[in-house]
Structure to design on (434 residues):
């Protein structure tokens, strides 16, 4: 029997990140993590900074994408569109850069007193931590294979 | 002789200028290409976003949302998007002409200026400046417009501004840019796309998490911010193409001047040679005779 798939599309403000046929997608929404399987009822939800996992049926491999907020639209015909504020594939994450961003955000958190600056620094710190987490997770996964 | 030396010097300086304008033309050409690519790259996002917004608005009552409602209190806000640097032909002049024209329709208004040229212009006019943004980075990123949207959106919701209009150069093609006035707030222009999107996409039962209202509350600001982003990208693409064309014209003019001067130089050189020959011949004839 042919496996049912979902057409996953991730677009960010700067580009179309990826478009793939997948069998399951897990994302972190405002209310917690959800996993979407084929024939899911139409759903529109807000995403928070976190990871997106999808299972690629051709290689039976899970891929990770770091998402920094956005929206997810699960369409009626097995189509998922993720509108991400920013998204990075685990393979594309440059740990050195992220580490630097993390440190910058941490110092900014200590120094900045205004509420707005604090919020911006906090958001970028959360983003950096998320990207680091996902990038490391992928490495750990690779070892047993 | 003094004449020829003078011409030679002028040829030299015209050639130098044409080298500079040629270089600026090429720099602008590559920047323009990058700016255009950026505009194109953000297209899929905006189309998906407005599609989703259309669907959500269909299921909630969009007219209830404060960002969609016109309200009479507060001043109209005019945002003028210009360039930081000059040498881009008539771009800023045309832009300011439209801004002046548009401002006559507004009774009492405030402005936000983007770019040094707009700041100079608005302070010359004596208009009220709420904020000014200059020296935006060459490659505009989404976070660069957050300070701007943080003035606009709360200002509109807090009855400080009654409407928000953008005056900017819309990019049509490399050869033509059009000064344009767009009303950002209250949001109106999504309505036609709303009507189109409704029937096609969102006929089936949709679940909204946490709730349609909450989704709309966060989608609308995202949509507005993205509109601002697109306007700035458009203005940037216009700036570079206008500068490229201006520099191309300047290079062509310099070439024409060099040609004209060269002709004059050759003529005067020939004239002096002829005079010398006549003198030699006359002297020679006098000696023989």
């Amino acid at each position: 029997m042919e496996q049912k798939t979902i057409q996953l599309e991730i677009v960010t403000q700067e580009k179309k990140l990826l478009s793939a046929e997948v069998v399951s997608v897990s994302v972190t929404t405002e209310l917690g993590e959800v996993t979407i399987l084929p024939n899911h009822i139409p759903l529109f939800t807000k995403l928070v900074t976190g990871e997106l996992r999808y299972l690629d049926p051709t290689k039976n491999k899970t891929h990770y994408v770091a998402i920094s907020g956005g929206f997810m639209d699960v369409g009626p015909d097995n189509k998922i569109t993720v509108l991400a504020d920013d998204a990075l594939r685990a393979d594309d994450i440059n740990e050195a850069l992220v580490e630097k961003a993390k440190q910058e955000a941490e110092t900014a958190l200590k120094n900045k007193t205004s509420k707005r600056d604090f919020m911006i620094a906090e958001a970028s710190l959360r983003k950096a931590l998320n990207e680091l987490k996902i990038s490391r997770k992928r490495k750990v996964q690779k070892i047993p294979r | 002789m003094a004449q020829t030396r003078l011409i030679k010097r002028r040829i030299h300086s015209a050639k130098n200028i044409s080298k500079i304008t040629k270089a600026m033309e090429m720099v602008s050409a590559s920047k323009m290409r990058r700016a255009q690519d950026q505009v194109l790259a953000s297209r899929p996002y905006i189309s998906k976003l407005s599609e989703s917004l259309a669907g959500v608005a269909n299921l909630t009552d969009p007219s209830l949302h404060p960002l969609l409602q016109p309200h009479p209190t507060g001043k109209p806000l005019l945002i003028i998007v210009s360039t930081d640097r000059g040498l881009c032909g008539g771009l800023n002049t045309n832009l300011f002409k439209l801004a002046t024209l548009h401002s006559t329709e507004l009774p009492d208004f405030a402005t936000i200026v983007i770019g040094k040229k707009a700041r100079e212009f608005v302070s010359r006019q004596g208009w009220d400046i709420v904020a000014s943004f200059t020296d935006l980075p060459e490659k505009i990123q989404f976070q660069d417009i957050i300070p701007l949207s943080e003035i606009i959106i709360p200002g509109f919701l807090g009855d400080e501004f009654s409407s928000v209009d953008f005056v900017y150069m819309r990019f049509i093609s490399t050869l033509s840019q059009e000064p344009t006035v767009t009303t950002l707030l209250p949001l109106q222009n999504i309505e036609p796309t709303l009507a189109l999107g409704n029937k096609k996409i969102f006929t089936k039962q949709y679940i909204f998490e946490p709730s349609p209202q909450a989704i709309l509350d966060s989608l609308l600001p995202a949509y507005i911010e993205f509109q601002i982003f697109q306007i700035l990208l458009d203005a940037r693409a216009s700036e570079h193409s206008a500068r490229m064309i201006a520099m191309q014209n300047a290079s062509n003019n310099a070439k024409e001047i060099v040609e004209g001067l060269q002709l004059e130089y050759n003529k005067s050189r020939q004239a002096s040679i002829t005079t010398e020959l006549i003198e030699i011949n006359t002297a020679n004839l006098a000696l023989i005779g």
Summary: The beta strands of chain A are 6-12, 16-22, 24-29, 32-36, 43-56, 61-67, 70-74, 79-84, 87-89. The longest strand of chain A covers residues 43-56. Residues 95 and 132 of chain A are 7 Å apart (CA to CA).
